[in-house]
Design brief:
The longest helix has 19 residues. This protein has one domain: 3-Layer(aba) Sandwich (Rossmann fold), CATH 3.40.50.300. The two termini are 22 Å apart. It is α/β, with parallel strands linked by helices. Strands 1, 2, 3, 4, 5, 6, 7 and 8 form an eight-stranded mixed beta sheet that branches. Helix content is 29%, strand content 25%. β6, α3 and β7 form a beta-alpha-beta unit. The relative contact order is 0.17. Bound molecules: guanosine-5'-triphosphate (GTP) and magnesium ion. The site of magnesium ion (MG) has 4 residues, from α1.
């Protein structure tokens, strides 16, 4: 739920969701370091909060707060970025962390042997969002770990989205808001599209609020170059 405060600040919650080990924590680490060290449209404020086990797997969540550095929104727009703990047993916790989410980035572990586990994680997300994905909550897909061999391709995952009714045909008014599927690598030294995928989710979340009153705006063509 986007929060507007009395002092004209806007808080947007973006959540990384996905199976255990898909790279969510690594993605936020890379996003943090990259936007701290480079002059980008967002910059971190403070440190990342990480609650994890000795193995590095998330126990509760990670959280980072980023502020917009764009001229028109500088000092006014803030992004609360969370990751969920992906292990199966943390399902009730994920439901809690999900509350108030404005935009979701779904991180896929692209290794082909995890194909079914990714689908299971997507189904759980769908279940929690109760039909709101894409319609009210923008969805972006990261096919992560594309630096490895034997990975899931874009067409494979598009089919998953179609099967899950998260993909609209060109004659549908939601077609324009179909999830963009990014082929990513979250490892800092080999990073690919970590910043870009976040930016697109943030951009869409803003458009949903400004032009759609919290829903996917219908008259979308003019926003193409927004
Ligand atoms: N090769 C490769 N390894 C990655 C990539 N992203 C993450 N990893 C590795 O995958 C492992 C798990 O990454 P995490 O970021 O902890 O995964 P997570 O999604 O946060 O896992 P949970 O917190 O258990 O849900 C770590 O060893 C990472 O270094 C990637 O793009 N490529
Ligand atoms: Mg994690």
């Amino acid at each position: 739920m986007v929060r507007f405060t009395a002092d004209h600040k806007v808080y947007i919650k973006i959540l990384y969701w996905g199976m255990a080990g898909s790279g969510k924590t690594t993605i936020v680490d890379t996003l943090y370091r990259f936007t701290k060290e480079n002059d980008k449209d967002i910059a971190p404020t403070g440190n990342l909060t990480k609650i994890s086990m000795a193995s590095g797997s998330t126990l509760y969540f990670d959280r980072g707060i980023f502020r917009s550095t764009k001229q028109q929104s500088r000092g006014k727009v803030f992004y609360h970025v969370y990751t969920v703990a992906g292990q199966r047993r943390f399902s009730p916790l994920r439901k809690k962390i999900f509350k108030g989410t404005d935009g979701v980035i779904f991180a896929v572990d692209s290794q082909t042997h995890f194909f079914e586990d990714n689908i299971e994680s997507l189904k759980e997300l769908k279940n929690i969002t109760r039909g709101k994905l894409i319609k009210e909550i923008p969805l972006i897909i990261m096919l992560n770990k594309q630096d490895l061999t034997e990975v899931i391709g874009e067409e494979d995952f598009k089919q998953v989205l179609k099967d899950e009714k998260l993909w609209y045909e060109p004659d549908d008014k939601l077609y324009f808001w179909n999830p963009i599927i990014y082929k990513t690598c979250a490892l800092y030294e080999k990073r690919k599209d970590v910043y870009r995928s976040f930016s697109e989710c943030a951009r869409r979340t803003g458009l949903y609020q400004i032009y759609g009153d919290g829903e996917a705006p219908e008259e979308f063509k003019e926003f193409r170059d927004f």
